[in-house]
Specification:
By secondary structure, this protein is mainly α. It has helices at residues 3-6, 12-36, 41-62, 71-96. The chain has one domain (17-96). It is elongated, with a radius of gyration of 17 Å. The mean pLDDT is 91.
């Protein structure tokens, strides 16, 4: 058997394509679970305000390879994730923060 057959075919791009939706689904499910288990709203809201931007930065720093990956595609994916994050954070802010 050749040495290339023994190596993993998991590129950074492929890792991102599996990891991104997994993290988002786990985050949303954990938020729903925490909401119904009495977790303080400030903790849930703080997690959504801090977690996704940190993930987007980590993804750019460690899972993006300029030599291999397409910048436009990566930027588009990050933009979609940013919009999802802003939507969830806005929804939670309206739901959890007091009006007055």
């Amino acid at each position: 058997m050749s040495e290339t057959n023994n190596q993993s075919n998991w590129t950074k791009s492929k890792i991102r394509s599996v990891l991104n939706p997994t993290i988002w689904v786990i985050g949303l499910l954990y938020t729903v679970h925490s909401h119904f288990n009495g977790c303080p709203h400030a903790v849930i809201l703080g997690g959504w305000f801090i977690g996704p931007p940190v993930w987007l930065w980590l993804e750019y720093q460690f899972l993006f390879d300029r030599a291999v990956d397409d910048w436009k595609s990566f930027k588009h994916t990050q933009s979609l994730q940013r919009n999802l994050w802003l939507g969830v954070a806005a929804f939670l802010a309206v739901k959890y923060l007091p009006l007055s």
